[in-house]
Design goal:
Helices cover 57% and strands 16% of the residues. The chain is an alpha+beta fold. The protein has 2 domains: 211 residues, Porin chaperone SurA, peptide-binding domain (Triger factor/SurA peptide-binding fold); 111 residues, Chitinase A, domain 3 (Roll). A hairpin with a 2-residue loop joins strand 1 and strand 2. Helix 2 crosses helix 4.
Length: 357
């Protein structure tokens, strides 16, 4: 079988050549879907949108022929662009059959909502913003109408099939408790005392005597704490830690985010325990374990909406795929470009193989 990239390379050459009739360049029809045409101009517009979505700079259809980097990107993007275009045509056609087109008032309300979301106050500003994004107002209205119709089709024809019952939500919660766990956390207080350094050869270094003196100081602090002196008061007296302003308090901290050696140390402690002095690269530290909270699942009421969204999204994807497959099976698709037809068939075959896996 001819590789997909070879088909696409051949198609790019075919599609880039104008069709001449008595000296006039005609619009090239690539495929008809239930009698509605999809043209070379339509394809180029969608290719440009797809390239821009991947942060590639493209100004006009001419760039698709002159820029080698963009040509290479089209090898990957175009098959999906073709499939999506035909699926959209089918959805919009079905919406029109059902009478789901927006009226003038609905279009106006949608435009005003978009303007408000983007802090745009006048029509002139809105048109300027569209131009800057590479779209004129007529194209915007056409795209807006299509998006409106697709959303209405989804709402009326698909979403009614994905409603989740209370019992289904509770069953998912019971069998997926781990997904809704609040992580185990701890809160600690710390005291840090640095080892003094001296400059040698332009570098800060410590000597053994200074390190020993600091080690003795932190040991004395721990001894005082074990005799009952207040940890917070001691923080204010001797600590050089950034946590000093908060009485040495750090946390709550997700236990799974701690370094393994710290986690191992804290696993052996219970609330109220004070660690042995910990030698760090810059000094010595004491840690007091304040609180430990075990991992516990959120209540069902708190995660009810999350469950609905999670299952709903999965069902929506499956139901929409079945709905589109049904529309495709019922559609009359007439290909006017063999290479494009081959790209479409290969992409669809790849999708079916992925579904079987």
């Amino acid at each position: 079988m001819k590789p997909l990239t070879a088909f696409l390379a051949a198609f790019v050459l075919v599609a880039s050549a104008p069709i001449l009739g008595q000296g006039v360049i005609l619009e090239q029809v690539l495929v008809k879907v239930n009698g509605e045409i999809f043209t070379k101009t339509d394809l180029e517009a969608r290719q440009i949108d797809a390239l821009r979505a991947t942060n590639r700079q493209v100004s006009n259809p001419g760039d698709l022929k002159s820029d080698a980097t963009l040509k290479a990107a089209l090898v990957e993007l175009t098959p999906s662009v073709i499939v999506d275009a035909i699926d959209e045509l089918l959805m919009v056609q079905r919406g029109k059959e059902l009478g789901l087109q927006p009226n003038a008032e609905q279009m106006k309300d949608t435009v005003e909502r978009i303007k408000k979301q983007n802090n745009i106050t006048t029509d002139a500003q809105f048109r300027t913003a569209l131009t800057q994004s590479g779209m004129n107002y007529e194209e915007f209205e056409k795209n807006l109408e299509k998006e409106y119709i697709k959303a209405r089709v989804q709402q009326q024809e698909i979403m009614t099939k994905i409603q989740l019952t209370e019992e289904e939500s509770k069953e998912y919660y019971r069998t997926h408790l781990k997904e809704f766990e609040k992580p185990a956390t701890i809160s600690i207080r710390d005291i840090f005392i640095s080892v003094p350094t001296v400059m040698q050869g332009g570098q800060a270094v410590t000597n053994v005597a200074a390190d020993d003196e600091t080690a003795k100081k932190i040991a004395d602090v721990r001894a005082r704490l074990l005799k009952g002196e207040d940890f917070v008061k001691m923080v204010g007296e001797v600590s050089e830690s950034p946590s000093k302003a908060n009485g040495g308090l750090i946390g709550p901290i997700n236990i799974s985010e701690l370094a393994p050696q710290v986690r191992d140390l804290l696993d052996k402690m219970k609330p109220g325990d004070i660690s042995e002095p910990i030698h760090t690269p810059n000094g010595y530290q004491l840690i007091k374990l304040e609180t430990r909270t075990a991992a516990t699942p959120e209540s069902f009421d708190k995660v009810r909406e999350d469950i609905a969204n999670k299952i709903g999204s999965s069902r929506m994807e499956n139901e929409q795929k079945k709905y589109i497959d049904k529309l495709r099976a019922q559609a009359i698709i007439e290909w006017k470009n063999d290479e494009l037809h081959k790209l479409y068939d290969q992409k669809m075959a790849g999708g079916r193989d992925a579904d079987r896996r």
